[in-house]
Amino acid sequence: MARRPNVFQARREANAKAREDAFHHNVYVVLLDPAVGRLRKVQRENPLRLGDKPCVYVGMTGLSPEERFANHKAGIKGAYVVKRYGVRLVPELFEHLNPMPFDAAAIMERDLAEDLRRQGYTVTGGH
Fold first, then answer.
1. Please, which residues have CB within 8 angstroms of residue 9's CB and are 6 or more apart in sequence?
2. Domain boundaries in the chain?
3. CB under 8 Å to 91, separation ≥6 — which residues?
4. Which of 26, 70, 103, 122 is the most exposed place for a label (fewest CB within 10 A)?
């Protein structure tokens, strides 16, 4: 005789999958060529920038940071500054924060951009 599926086990597995799916957003930081600091918009956004700190772009994604950076460079839903001035990811500034749910990532993107600005980085993105 065939056993009936365990309804409780199926529910536990579905809940675990939902929790796992909920934590798939990432924030990321891209190192930009210093030439981006000459753009007036970037200068206006960063009045306290320090010359010894790099220019960076802060973003959020449901993809891996590596995939998102590749999309930026390919022009797929990419930010102009990353496509033109993006050099590489800066994982030491964001890896410890990932992954997280969408709402947390949206807040973290803004907070990370503000924190880096306060430290003297020239920051774009971080909306």
1. none
2. 24-125
3. 65
4. 103
Phi-psi region of 3 (alpha: psi -120 to 50; beta: other; left: phi over 0): beta
pTM over 0.90: no
> Low-confidence residues of the chain, pLDDT below 70?
1-8, 10, 14-21
Q: How far apart are CA 89 and CA 14, in angstroms?
A: 34
For the sheet with 26-32, list strands across it.
86-89, 26-32, 55-61, 122-125
For the chain, the residue count is 127
Ordered DSSP codes for 72-117: HHHTSS--HHHHHHEEEE-GGGTGGG-SB-HHHHHHHHHHHHHHHH
